[in-house]
Amino acid sequence: MEHVLPERQLKELQKAILDFMHTQGYAESLEVFARESGNDGFVADSKDRHHNLLAKKWTSVIRLQKKIMELETKLSKLQDDVRTGAVATRRGKPAEWLPRPPAQQTLAQHRAPITSVRFHPQYMVLATASEDMTVKIWDSESGDFERTLKGHTKSVQDMAFDAKGSVLVTCSADLTLRVWDVSDEYKCVRTLHGHDHCVSAVCFIGADKIASASRDKTVKIWELATGYC
Fold first, then answer.
1. Does the pLDDT value for residue 189 go beyond 90?
2. 98-127 pLDDT tens trace
3. How far is 61 from 185, CA to CA, in rounded Å?
4. What is the model's pTM?
5. Among 176, 167, 103, which Cα is nearest to 140's?
6. Do the beta carbons of residue 220 and residue 194 sit within 8 Å?
């Protein structure tokens, strides 16, 4: 039978289901499913990232469905305004358009000042970079912490997702850039060397090039596929 999901995502789903079965006390079903899915010897761990993952994602789906319905209602109203010639304008003073406290979420995991924040272009994912030499990945809808990206040896200065959100690039005071494969659990697939001082900014140029700026007074252009400058 052909799988709809890639092998890696299929295994992730299976482990999340096994964790859910363990949490709910479905011992017999867990044993059978573990055997048939090739996950013999599965041991649930409250510290594992699969713990309660299924319930969290299901809750996120419900929230997203509600938002979609709200947006569809707003879209329908705007379409009616366009058809009738009505002009849709914001009411109130411009200052009232800005977000106001209290904050929807407070995310606390970093051990040093945060230097950069980026939203994933497609998914409800948020990335934060810090002087603690790490990047942390969050569920931007629920505020749940998901994982830490380690590899840089000094402060992470900036980062950028590509347009599709399949790659995350970070730059650091350790003089390097790192390329992380989002689809493969944010695995670091390449480290780019070339700057002689702190790399302070990074961005994508199209789909296959990266630009980095440094305190060495240069801007470098890199090929994403090869890492060549």
1. yes
2. 777 888 889 999 999 999 999 999 998 999
3. 21
4. 0.67
5. 103
6. yes
